[in-house]
Amino acid sequence: MSLPPTLLTELELAGYFPDTARAALERAVRDARIRSYLVRPETTFDGPEVRRHLTILALTEDHLLIVHLDDESADALNPTQVIVSTERVKLARVGNLALAQAYDTDGTAIAPREAEVTLGFSWGANRRLDVQPAWCDDPQCSADHGYTGESREADLVLRVSALADGEQAIADALAFFDSLYDATQ
Question: Does the reported pTM lie above 0.90?
Answer without folding.
Answer: no
